[in-house]
Amino acid sequence: MNTGELAPSTRSTVDPDLATMIDNVFGYRQTAPTGGSGERVEYDRELWQRLDSLGLVRLTGAEESGGSGAGWLEAAELLRAAVRHGVRIPLAEHDLLACWLLETLGRPVDDAVRTVYVAPRSGESTTPVPWAADAERVVVLWPAGDEYRLTELDTAELSLAVGTNLIGEPRDTISVDTAGVTGHPVPTGLVDQLGRKSAMVRAIQVCAALDRAVALSIEHVASRVQFGRPLAKFQAIQNLISDAAAESALARAATEAALHIAIETDWQSAQLDFQIATARSCSGHAASVVTRNAHQVHGAIGTTHEHRLHEYTRAALAWRSEFGSVRFWDDQVAAAAVAAGGQQLWSLIAGP
């Protein structure tokens, strides 16, 4: 089975009523188009409170610590719905990354909005932290010999240089002095798992953005008339749409395959790194094709601030570069293939 994809009969699905409820939570509000590069977006705190009251802010958290006890399938559905409706909010950073890490280590979790910062090792460059200045607390990890250490800091305690990504989401640079801070020990393996989950989050979001861009393109060419017939009747337009749809579908298939293997193996599969790298590589390259083709079929209207297409194309381009660039993930795929060798390459692709 390609990329280790599970057979459909072995896969669990999201409860339809929950999926409808999630979509309706975001659908009741009509979001304005997001600003351009450098125009910082603040998340909707009223919406956050509404999501919190419905148990969606900590959807995957343990029930005994105030969470809803759901899994990654439900979390992925929540992320996709947020992307479809153009909602910029730190759901993944809070629930799937920061709170998950604290719970796994047996640390207390309260109602504060959180994000995660992993300090680089010596010689490595630091990367901007999603939503750092907008969060109430930052879970800080830093290398200490063969392991990591963890502490939590209030945002007000941190030295921050604010910034944004391509769609205006906060991406802030943090400076933390951990000298004299003991912290809580964190195994390197858990930090590696945090990296996998972070990469998976962005793959899910990129795929959702690409699907929406393709859908908008199909709606546009079906309704616009040129030279007496719908744009959808022109072969050149059909080719652009079909190429975009195919790339989006490939990215989605690779991402869903990796996600389901991660869920089924509790993120412990020996081939999971390769599967996530494949998902990120496919979604990264698909973002180029879908963005180019979608804007081409929309023509001039697709370049305007008022049209919503840019919300999804710019989002896909921004997210594909976070938690590893396209080139980084391409290199990971290539390195795994070379390491497997000719005899084991098919097993690597097909999975167990």
TrEMBL record:
<feature type="domain" description="Acyl-CoA dehydrogenase/oxidase N-terminal">
    <location>
        <begin position="41"/>
        <end position="107"/>
    </location>
</feature>
<keyword id="KW-0285">Flavoprotein</keyword>
<dbReference type="Pfam" id="PF00441">
    <property type="entry name" value="Acyl-CoA_dh_1"/>
</dbReference>
<comment type="similarity">
    <text>Belongs to the acyl-CoA dehydrogenase family.</text>
</comment>
<feature type="domain" description="Acyl-CoA dehydrogenase/oxidase C-terminal">
    <location>
        <begin position="201"/>
        <end position="324"/>
    </location>
</feature>
<protein>
    <submittedName>
        <fullName>Acyl-CoA dehydrogenase</fullName>
    </submittedName>
</protein>
<keyword id="KW-0560">Oxidoreductase</keyword>
<dbReference type="InterPro" id="IPR009100">
    <property type="entry name" value="AcylCoA_DH/oxidase_NM_dom_sf"/>
</dbReference>
<keyword id="KW-0274">FAD</keyword>
<dbReference type="InterPro" id="IPR009075">
    <property type="entry name" value="AcylCo_DH/oxidase_C"/>
</dbReference>
<dbReference type="InterPro" id="IPR037069">
    <property type="entry name" value="AcylCoA_DH/ox_N_sf"/>
</dbReference>
<dbReference type="InterPro" id="IPR013786">
    <property type="entry name" value="AcylCoA_DH/ox_N"/>
</dbReference>
<dbReference type="InterPro" id="IPR036250">
    <property type="entry name" value="AcylCo_DH-like_C"/>
</dbReference>
<dbReference type="Pfam" id="PF02771">
    <property type="entry name" value="Acyl-CoA_dh_N"/>
</dbReference>
<dbReference type="GO" id="GO:0003995">
    <property type="term" value="F:acyl-CoA dehydrogenase activity"/>
</dbReference>
<dbReference type="GO" id="GO:0050660">
    <property type="term" value="F:flavin adenine dinucleotide binding"/>
</dbReference>
